[in-house]
Design goal:
Blueprint (H helix, E strand, L loop, with lengths): L2 H15 L5 H10 L5 H5 L1 H4 L11 H27 L6 H20 L1 H6 L3 H7 L12 H10 L20 H5 L9 E2 L4 E2 L1 H20 L5 H6 L3 H4 L2 H30 L14 H5 L1 H4 L10 H5 L7
Antiparallel strand pairs: 1-2
Helix pairs in contact: 5-6, 5-9, 6-14, 9-11
Length: 309
């Protein structure tokens, strides 16, 4: 046995002995272990069996797979955000690099809308969509987590109610005034659509916990906790502005135009599958969703999303 092999065995022993495990038991287990394969590591068979159509229309498969890919990208985005959220010794370089990763994922999501916009026949979509009611992409829990993890809650409150909300507002009350309730809640009566009722039955308690846990570690709060010199870094500011614009204007508008093509095909406007007022909910100029408001000028905020919409 050469020196490198002895060093390797010594390191293996140290690793398992540090957790009160017999290293030789684990080494012997390697004798019987199967070699890893690509399909086992990626779980290809399981992944490719998750696409279950509700109709016989071929383009429904495009719709299903596209949204599953979105959810995988959302998971990647949250993975990157959480690295910033839990990091104590946060540096400008680390922050910028993770923001750039996240923006690349959203750039992918934005460009991929051509698959939705050009990759399905409107006639097929308008048929199979009737089997999806009241389900909607609105019900992506991961996307809501991305919002909670990106900015302070006040920036996610419906613009009409922001003056009545502050840091002392109970999470339950703030939750009831999040901007996306405009898609399916009559604020004058408090009545919620089936779309939101089902969403809340599944996720509301989870959302309230996440709203609280991200309260002090969201991207905007982490940025504001940096030393003044770091907050002035041009590279970091540009990364944050790019992320903010990409998520809240570029990606949203790509989604909007894809929805518009199908929901307004045939010469009339259809409701979204969840019954929401999808234009008022999606267009950034109405809700002015901005993650990092202090990094934009008054004119930029005033005209937020106007040219896009």
């Amino acid at each position: 046995m050469n020196q490198n092999q002895e060093n390797l065995l010594s390191r293996i022993s140290e690793k398992f002995e540090s957790i009160d495990q017999n290293p030789y038991t684990h080494l012997e287990g390697l004798i019987w272990a199967k070699p890893i394969t690509y399909w086992d590591y990626i779980q290809t068979d399981a992944l490719l069996n998750l696409q279950i159509q509700r109709t016989t229309l071929p383009d429904e498969m495009v719709f299903i797979m596209y949204h599953q890919i979105n959810e995988l990208l959302f998971k990647m985005i949250l993975w990157e955000i959480d690295q910033v959220a839990v990091k104590d010794d946060l540096t400008v370089d680390f922050f910028s690099e993770r923001l750039n990763r996240i923006s690349r994922y959203f750039d992918m999501l934005t460009s991929s809308f051509s698959i939705m916009q050009e990759g399905m026949e409107p006639e097929q979509y308008l048929k199979f969509r009737n089997t999806l009611t009241p389900a909607s992409g609105f019900q992506s829990a991961q996307y809501r987590l991305i919002e909670f993890a990106s900015t302070e809650l006040i920036n996610l409150i419906d613009a009409r109610y922001r003056p009545t909300i502050d840091r002392n507002t109970p999470y339950e009350h703030a939750y009831e005034h999040l901007y996306w309730h405009a898609a399916g809640k009559d604020h004058s009566t408090g009545k919620k659509s089936t779309l939101i009722q089902l969403f809340e039955k599944k996720y509301k308690s989870f959302f309230l916990r996440k709203m609280e846990s991200y309260n002090t570690i969201n991207l905007w709060t982490k940025y504001k906790s940096l030393p003044e010199h770091d907050r002035s870094d041009a590279k970091l500011i540009e990364s944050m502005r790019h992320y903010d614009h990409t998520v809240n204007i570029t990606w949203v508008m790509a989604h909007y135009y894809a929805a518009e093509k199908y929901l307004e095909s045939g010469g009339k406007t259809a409701e979204a599958t969840g019954g929401s007022d999808w234009k008022k909910y999606m267009l950034p100029k109405y809700q002015k969703r901005i993650f990092f408001p202090d990094l934009w000028s008054e004119d930029e905020i005033k005209n937020w999303g106007e040219q896009a919409g």
